[in-house]
Task: inverse folding
């Protein structure tokens, strides 16, 4: 797939078919993710790919974040229907057959820690684009960070930080295209 096409057409998918993608496809996506740039090339990240019972248990824990999210959605005056959609998605991650968690090593130096987090974000974006190129849907999710400690404990990585998770699988519903805001882009010294 052409790179610009992947960038413009990748979407966040919130409903999946139950079919598991072939492991070699998931492996290619993970490999592309790992080739992201990283501060001092530290690659201070770890990736956990979950299916089957592990996925069930992890998703059940992640669903506890709904309790924290609901008051925030209500305060933001999100309509009842929208609140229910979010709750349903967080309940089972849209039925995706696999879930990927990206965790990051902590660094006591705040600048290095930010570099680790930004590197993890680069990995995450590579992962999303590669998945899209393979015909798979994903959804970058930080909403589950409300239960970060429980999820890290489950993963056996209590000393790391959870960057984000994503469901991964074949999409069952074409999502809408959320418009982009006309934020300022400054061009200085070009004339
Ligand atoms: C850092 C980050 C966190 C996100 N967290 C969530 C989340 O917790 N739940 C969710 O449904 N979508 C989440 N998203 C997806 C965004 O809602 C989505 O990217 C945005 O609405 C634009 O839509 P698109 O990805 O389809 O272009 C997150 C995206 C990013 C980059």
Result:
């Amino acid at each position: 797939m052409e790179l610009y096409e992947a960038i413009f057409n990748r979407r966040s998918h919130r409903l999946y078919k139950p079919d598991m993608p072939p492991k070699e496809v998931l492996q290619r996506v993970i490999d592309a993710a790992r080739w992201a740039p990283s501060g001092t090339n530290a690659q201070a990240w770890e990736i956990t790919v979950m299916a089957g019972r592990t996925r069930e248990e992890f998703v059940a824990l992640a669903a506890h974040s709904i309790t924290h999210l609901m008051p925030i959605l209500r305060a933001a005056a999100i309509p009842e229907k929208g609140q229910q959609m979010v709750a349903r998605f967080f309940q089972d991650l849209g039925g995706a057959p696999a879930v990927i968690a990206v965790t990051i090593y902590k660094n006591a130096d705040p600048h290095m820690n930010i570099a680790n987090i930004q590197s993890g974000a680069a990995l995450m974006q590579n992962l999303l684009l590669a998945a899209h190129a393979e015909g798979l849907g994903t959804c970058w999710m930080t909403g589950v960070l409300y239960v970060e400690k429980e999820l890290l404990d489950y993963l056996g990585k209590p000393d790391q930080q959870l960057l984000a998770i994503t469901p991964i699988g074949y999409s069952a519903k074409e999502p809408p295209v959320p418009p982009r805001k006309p934020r300022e882009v400054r061009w200085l010294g070009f004339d």
